[in-house]
Every structure is written in structure tokens, then in C-alpha cells.
Amino acid sequence: xxxxxEYRRATFAFESGDxxxxxxxxxxxLAAEPHNAAVRQLLARAYFNSAQLAGAEAQLRVLIERDPSxxxxxxxxxxxxxxxxRFSEALPHLRLAAAMKQHDDYAEAxxxxxxxxxxxxxxxxxxx
Length: 128
Hints:
Number of strands: 0
Distance between the termini: 51 Å
InterPro entries: TPR-like_helical_dom_sf (IPR011990)
Low-confidence stretches: none
Protein name: Tetratricopeptide repeat protein
Shape: elongated
Organism: Krasilnikovia cinnamomea
């Protein structure tokens, strides 16, 4: 298997709107190159975009463990936890991302989750 060609195929699948297909292509690449942050990040994004939130969370936590200053990984982990209804867990990651880099998407996600936590105490939607 030519890993670079497979990575290009996975990138094309992701950019063409097939995140689940991209994830399937990326998984064996990551197995062969477990320290490749670019592959891990694209896999996390593919999992996020295909609603495989546990997979996204696992990949993002590895990225953050290896590089705690990765603002993008903190942002996407925060968004993943938000999407899973885990607002209180999302908040610290969104705060870190917004503090590390000024970006409209980071600020908007932080505002949204802060508002939710303020209104609901961090409980998931529908929780009693």
C-alpha cells in the first residue's frame, strides 16, 4: 500500500463529502503511521463529520496529549463534546482554543456552549 496515495484518496473523499469513506481509508494509514499528526487530525475530522463522536474524541485526545498547545485539536474536541451533549466537558477545551488563537469559529462555539452551560448547568439536552 502506498500510504501517500491512500492519504490523497482519503483527503479527496473527505473533501468530496464522504467522511465515513475517508475514515475507512485513513484507519490503516494511521495504523502504519501512528505518530503522524496530519493523518490523525484528518481521521478525527472524518469521524466528527460522520457523527462517529467516540472515534473523534479518542483521536483528538491523543493529539492533545502529544501537543497540548494544539488549539485546533482543543477546538474540535470541544465541538465533539458539545455535539455529544457534554457541554461542561466541552467548555475548558473551547476556552483554551479561543485563548490560544483568535478565530470567529472558536469564539462562536465558546459563546454557544457558555450560554448553554449558563442556562442548563451543563446538562445534556432533555436531561432532567
